[in-house]
Specification:
Elements (H helix, E strand, L loop, with lengths): L2 H20 L7 H6 L9 E4 L10 E3 L5 E3 L7 E7 L4 H17 L4 E7 L3 H10 L6 E3 L1 H11 L9 E5 L5 E6 L4 H11 L1
InterPro entries: AhpC/TSA, Thioredoxin-like_sf, Thioredoxin_domain, Thioredoxin_ResA/DsbE_sf
Keywords: Cytochrome c-type biogenesis, Disulfide bond, Redox-active center
GO molecular function: antioxidant activity; oxidoreductase activity
Length: 190
């Protein structure tokens, strides 16, 4: 095999592997989705951001169709999570986020999810795995567009942004966050 042909074959194989990793699963049954959650931690990229950067402004409908603006949560610490029902690490985070939202909501902390799904998918999904914090419906396009405004230029999910009560971005995590790491970041903002 010539070096050129070998290089092309390798490029096709590598591209196919990466395409398979990033394609959404076409699974209409949320029960099956939650049953196949992989509990192994995903690769996590963590960055401390410039503490002076303010969060971008956006608005999206919630699960009831009401338009919600990020300003509604001004003067609160916001844990902003970009996720989708087909994303296994995202589904693994939900129980911990539910628990921490309940634990810290009276201390000025709000978890806020932005789903890369449509309203029908989220309604069906939350009947199987209830979510205790507000969920905004971004669909794929708006979710990734807003995530890019928060520095997520590669459309990675889960992608979690920790926003101080004054609106400044404190830190960002791309990939699966453990309950302990999430709680540590919240405590750093209290």
């Amino acid at each position: 095999m010539s070096p050129r042909l070998f290089f092309i074959a390798c490029a096709i194989i590598v591209s196919s592997v990466f395409a398979g990793l990033y394609l959404p699963q076409d699974n209409d049954n949320p029960a099956q989705q939650t049953a196949t959650i992989n509990t192994a931690p995903a690769v996590q990229i963590t960055t401390e951001t410039n503490k002076l950067k303010m969060r971008p402004s956006f608005q999206l409908p919630d699960i009831t169709g009401k338009i919600r603006h990020i300003k509604e949560w001004d003067n609160r610490i916001v844990v902003l999570n970009f996720w989708a029902t087909w994303c296994q690490p995202c589904l693994h985070e939900i129980p911990a986020f539910n628990k921490l939202h309940t634990k810290y909501q009276d201390k000025g902390v709000t978890f806020l999810g932005i789903a890369a799904n449509d309203k029908t998918e989220i309604e069906r999904f939350t009947k199987i795995l209830p979510i205790s914090y507000p969920i905004l419906i971004g669909g794929e396009f708006q979710t990734y567009e807003i995530a890019a405004e928060f520095g997520n230029i590669y459309s990675i999910i889960p992608y979690t942004v920790f926003i101080a009560a004054n609106g400044q971005i404190h830190s960002i995590a791309a990939g699966l966050l453990s309950e302990q790491e999430t709680e540590n970041r919240i405590k750093a903002l209290l």
